[in-house]
Amino acid sequence: MKRILFGTLVSIAVLGFLFSRLDLGETSKINLDEFSKRGLYEFSKLAVEELSDQARTTFLKIQERWEPIYLIPFCISSAWGLLLFSWRWHLLMGKQIRFRYALFSSFIGVGANMFLPARGGDIFRLYFCKKESDLQYPTLVTALFIEKVLDFSFIFSAGLSALVFLEIKDENNHSFLISFLVIASIFTGLLAVRFLNETIVSILAWAAGLFGKKEWFLQKLSHYVRDLGKFLVLKRFLVPAVLTAFTWLIGYALSYGILLKLVGIEMSYAGIVLIMFAGAVGVMVPSAPSGAGVFHASVTSAFVLMGRKASEGLFYATTVHLAQFILQSFFAVVFYLYWIVDRRKRGLGKAEFSLKESEVIEKNS
């Protein structure tokens, strides 16, 4: 409950900031003297009408260009992107789970992330794959961590490349420098984990010992560090890295581009990548309620950077969020129900949700 409340507050704060930055004042010529003449109700009504004029005008213009036929290729492209995502997830788990279950877990998990707080869909993926394989949670957590590192590193690199291609410059060059240092630090850390694994475990154990938690660290956390080091070999890392590029560039980008066509907005491929980068940064906040506000603010900011209207960006962000929410939630429900039926056909009972290393609790149906 606290996480949901926190996420909601973040949404309100970000959306409030976003609307405060929208240049709607240019169309607002409200005389405050009207307040005393018209009264509170009439004045408020007039204010709302004036302040929403620009957004309404933008909506009407886009409505004229609305092409609902693009909803069909959007559904197909979204499924295609999730298929690539599932394939990478299957490889990151070392193919130790059947591909169909890697696919099920991905569709359900991504859909669940649309409405569960704290990236609950990712947690469900771990639970799902533990039930359908002999993989241990440390291995699954390592695969999930590598997935996030690949996504973060690639989309940041793609976003910076889009900024350069679109000739959007940072006067102080601070943003580019900081982003480069962040990405370089991530890969330096991964190299250290790969080649200095035991040294890092020893240092962390010593640090935990300062707080009287050395044994707890060695028993509960050290195997995560060791598993990560074992995974970081080129032959296991290379193909998922290539799939990451395909997933973003010919999967997610395709969906973003189709939704632009849906609302009649023309955009270059570099612009699509920049919007995708902004949206991805927005949903990195680990809470579904806050994701809406931050996502809208991020996408709108990308439109403003490209010299477009903020109201146009806000409308497009709403379109993307609503379309993805409906479609991915639908996918999640369908695959989850199919999975339940599939388990019963295999003679397996219902299961209580558990992330304990002592494994999942089975119940007879």
Automatic annotation (TrEMBL):
Q: Which domain of life is it from?
A: Bacteria
Keywords assigned by UniProt, alphabetized: Cell membrane, Membrane, Transmembrane, Transmembrane helix
**What does UniProt give as GO cellular component?**
plasma membrane
| Record protein name field | TIGR00374 family protein
- Per its UniProt record, what PANTHER family does this chain match? UPF0104 MEMBRANE PROTEIN MJ1595 (PTHR39087:SF2)
> Is Membrane found in the keyword set?
yes
What organism is recorded for this protein? Leptospira adleri
Q: Which InterPro entries match?
A: L-PG_synthase/AglD
Q: Does the keyword Transmembrane helix apply?
A: yes
Q: How does it sit in the membrane?
A: Multi-pass membrane protein
**Cell location:** Cell membrane
The residues that cross the membrane are 69-87, 99-118, 149-168, 175-193, 237-255, 267-285, 322-341
